[in-house]
Specification:
This protein is mainly beta. It is built from two helices and eight strands; from the N terminus they run E-E-H-E-E-E-E-E-H-E.
């Protein structure tokens, strides 16, 4: 399922260290291609983890409003300038370390935002697109600053410092 070859390994540098996510091009080819496109554009560099719920997940990827200097009240409402993606639901379960695409209530609205699971989330299975799995550095994901309240909105959030594919320097 997860393809840990360098061209399919996304490396996120966090304040605590590097997180390696093996992408799943055989499970969600359009979503994996989108991730690679945005990584190549360096669109994810400096983007905040705007919604982090302890015991659930850490959400990031708002390349429109989530960058340093963006409007923090709008973080989580934006995407990229690319079109939304059709759902690529699968039988891959949401477990600790699973990377999935965030979306609105419309199943075909995923764009740039994604989340990493802190724990299993069976209620998401078949409802959200799985595109990868953390294969190294989950202890760094565990250190991401948590948000407050039911929404998990984060004040002064941690950010993805840089994001690159495994075959780049």
């Amino acid at each position: 399922m997860a393809d840990a070859t360098p061209e399919n390994t996304m490396i996120i540098t966090l304040p605590a260290g590097e997180v390696h996510i093996a992408l799943m091009p055989d499970v969600a080819p359009k979503h994996v291609e989108r991730m690679k496109t945005l990584v190549a554009q360096k669109a994810y560099d400096g983007v905040a983890f705007h919604r982090v719920i302890d015991g659930f997940m850490a959400q990031t990827g708002d390349v429109e409003h989530g960058k340093e200097g963006g409007d923090p009240r709008r973080a989580g409402t934006g995407g990229s300038d690319l079109p939304d993606l059709p759902a690529e639901f699968s039988k891959v379960p949401f477990e600790r370390g699973t990377a999935g695409m965030a979306r609105s209530q419309n199943p075909d609205s995923a764009n740039s935002q994604f989340f990493i699971m802190f724990d299993q989330g069976a209620f998401l299975n078949g409802q959200y697109t799985v595109f990868g799995q953390v294969i190294k550095g989950m202890e760094h994901v565990d250190k991401i600053k948590r948000g407050a309240g039911g929404s998990g909105a984060v004040t002064d959030p941690d950010r993805m410092i840089t994001v690159r594919m495994g075959d780049t320097v």
